[in-house]
């Protein structure tokens, strides 16, 4: 009788955890409603139902030690000590599961993925200003603490109250009835795997959520964060697609290598939505956008109306841009990376990278070393804390002027890349510019306008320098951002960014409506320069009109291939 009573108590406690996870899922849908336009009650109930199997899976996994140890009888006073330890374990492990779910409610719109083990082993370790970011997060999303307090009350009070319940009806049951009940419980648990409801025989994968929907935003809602972390540790996802096989690029015969300087701008969070030029029909044709200088420069450039980022995180952008390696397969291996910089360095180029954050932020400096970039300029080298923004690093305007002076001192030809940072939350501006730029439909809009203005001031400075006319400039973004127009709330446009090449001499110019992506930048640049040696790349030369044009992105590590007007979801991405 005591065993069955304990089993019922355990079941009720696990049910409370399940309820908490479903509430988290509901909060995910409500607070990220921009990605679920037109969602109604039936859609919501369908998502909640489909998510149950993921919740059951993680609840059984993380509570297995608790369930197992609760089934034993212990002698007093050891019984009281062990039960208190098990209570502490239960509350702690399940609250941690809820905490990571709460974090993802706010984190998902930026990254388009649930947290993985890499967030804890890599990202947290490379953020030099994590303390400031944590306070910023709590300041903006203060109500997350209210959610957490409510869940703590639910788990702790629920645990205690259930512990005081005695199921008296069990006393009237015969031994045969109890045995029958236990057999039914074990039978349902064992055969549950055949329903794909309780995954004992087969590991439940993220792609299993696609059985309930073909919308990757809804897949994100169906899954849960603790189970995604579990999968990233014990069942890492692999991708094998013919499109991702590197292609050998051979030099053009009888061509002359153009030893032009190369300057790449990686623009923080510069979604395509911010450009007026790239959105002629937005707001019934009245949308002006927030990048007036870049839009004017684009009209004298070779620009793409369908440019895409390969990922949604800053740390995924640099390998895609520099080495033609998309985020979906980006895994750090070896000590060397074949990149634009390393290839040009063999031809006598000086190589440098500029990023105004703390040196070591997001491990950019380490990657640059591996990618053949010799000179790294960060907040340390800038060496003027009067221009520190208080959170991330140096304001864009002074830092870009600093870059211009360093380029002036650099022997030609050179390769320079800059990753700006002022167009990032907490979306603040230097005091002298507060109120100068448009707020727009998103807090980031005024910061994008400030960064655009800073780039304009940079061009005013460098256009007078002797190296300027012998240079090709590349502009792209690291990733897109949460949309403020419903037209951008799609799994396709969640990766839409500007992408263009500018030369002062006009040698590469025009508008192209075909699909372009970050991994195409390396082969396009090298082929434009007539790079004289063989090299491999996954991307294509965007000036080659005969090449098949496509873009690969991913949500929750599920690849989606963008081709013309179609988006193909690759369901076999997990093995």
Explain how this protein is built.
The chain is of the alpha/beta class and 575 residues long. Helices cover 42% and strands 12% of the residues. It contains 18 helices and 13 strands. It has an 8-stranded mixed beta sheet with strand order 5-4-6-2-7-8-3-9. A hairpin with a 2-residue loop joins strand 11 and strand 12. Helix 1 packs across helix 2 and helix 16 runs parallel beside helix 17. The longest helix has 34 residues. About 2% of the residues have low confidence.
What's the helix and strand layout?
Layout: H1 2-31, H2 41-62, H3 64-70, H4 78-111, H5 117-126, H6 130-140, H7 143-163, H8 175-191, H9 216-222, H10 225-234, E1 247-249, E2 261-267, H11 292-298, E3 302-308, H12 314-323, H13 340-345, E4 350-355, H14 364-370, E5 375-377, H15 379-382, H16 396-408, E6 414-419, H17 444-462, E7 471-477, E8 499-502, E9 510-517, H18 521-528, E10 535-537, E11 551-555, E12 558-563, E13 566-569
Parallel strand pairs: 2-6, 2-7, 3-9, 4-5, 4-6
Antiparallel strand pairs: 1-10, 3-8, 7-8, 11-12, 12-13
Helix pairs in contact: 1-2, 1-4, 1-7, 4-7, 16-17
């Amino acid at each position: 009788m005591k065993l069955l009573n304990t089993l019922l108590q355990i079941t009720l406690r696990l049910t409370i955890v399940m309820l908490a996870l479903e509430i988290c899922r509901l909060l995910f849908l409500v607070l990220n409603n921009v990605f679920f336009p037109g969602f109604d009650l039936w859609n919501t109930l369908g998502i909640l139902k489909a998510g149950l199997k993921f919740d059951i899976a993680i609840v059984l996994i993380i509570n297995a030690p608790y369930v197992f140890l609760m089934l034993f009888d212990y002698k007093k006073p050891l019984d009281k000590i062990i039960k208190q330890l098990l209570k502490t374990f239960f509350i702690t492990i399940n609250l941690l599961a809820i905490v990571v779910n709460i974090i993802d409610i706010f984190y998902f719109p930026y990254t388009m993925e649930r947290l993985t083990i890499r967030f804890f082993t890599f990202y947290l370790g490379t953020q030099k200003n994590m303390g400031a970011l944590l306070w910023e997060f709590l300041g903006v999303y203060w109500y997350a603490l209210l959610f957490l307090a409510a869940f703590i009350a639910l788990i702790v009070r629920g645990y205690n109250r259930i512990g005081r319940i005695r199921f008296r009806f069990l006393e009237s049951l015969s031994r045969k009835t109890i045995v029958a009940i236990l057999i039914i419980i074990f039978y349902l648990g064992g055969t549950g795997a055949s329903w794909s409801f309780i995954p004992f025989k087969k590991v439940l994968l993220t792609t299993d959520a696609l059985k309930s929907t073909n919308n990757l935003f809804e897949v994100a809602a169906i899954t849960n964060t603790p189970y995604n972390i579990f999968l990233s540790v014990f069942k890492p996802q692999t991708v094998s697609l013919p499109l991702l096989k590197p292609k050998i690029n051979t030099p053009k015969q009888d061509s002359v290598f153009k030893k032009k300087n190369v300057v790449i701008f990686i623009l923080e969070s510069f979604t395509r939505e911010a450009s007026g030029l790239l959105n002629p029909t937005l707001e019934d044709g009245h949308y002006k956008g927030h990048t007036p200088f870049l839009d004017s420069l684009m009209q004298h450039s070779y620009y793409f109306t369908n440019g895409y980022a390969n990922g949604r995180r800053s740390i995924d952008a640099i390998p895609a841009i520099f080495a033609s390696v998309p985020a979906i397969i980006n895994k750090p291996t070896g000590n060397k990376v074949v990149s634009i910089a390393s290839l040009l360095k063999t031809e006598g180029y000086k190589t440098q990278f500029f990023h105004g954050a703390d040196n070591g932020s997001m491990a950019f400096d380490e990657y640059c070393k591996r990618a053949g970039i010799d000179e790294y300029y960060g907040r340390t080298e800038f060496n003027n804390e009067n221009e520190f923004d208080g959170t991330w690093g140096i304001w864009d305007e002074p830092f870009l002027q600093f870059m211009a002076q360093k380029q002036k001192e650099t022997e030609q030809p050179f390769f320079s890349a800059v990753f700006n940072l002022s167009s990032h939350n907490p979306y603040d501006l230097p005091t002298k510019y507060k109120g100068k730029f448009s707020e727009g439909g998103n807090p980031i809009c005024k910061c994008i306008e400030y960064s655009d203005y800073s780039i304009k001031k940079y061009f005013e400075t460098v256009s007078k320098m002797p190296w300027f006319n012998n240079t090709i400039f590349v502009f792209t973004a690291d990733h897109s951002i949460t949309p403020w127009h419903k037209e951008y709330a799609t799994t396709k446009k969640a990766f839409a960014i500007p992408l263009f090449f500018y030369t002062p001499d006009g040698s590469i110019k025009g508008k192209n409506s075909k699909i372009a992506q970050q991994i195409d930048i390396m082969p396009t640049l090298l082929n434009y320069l007539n790079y004289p040696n063989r090299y491999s790349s996954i991307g294509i030369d965007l000036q080659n009109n005969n090449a098949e044009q496509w873009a690969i992105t991913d949500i929750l590590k599920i690849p989606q291939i963008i081709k013309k007007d179609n988006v193909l979801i690759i369901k076999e991405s997990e093995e």
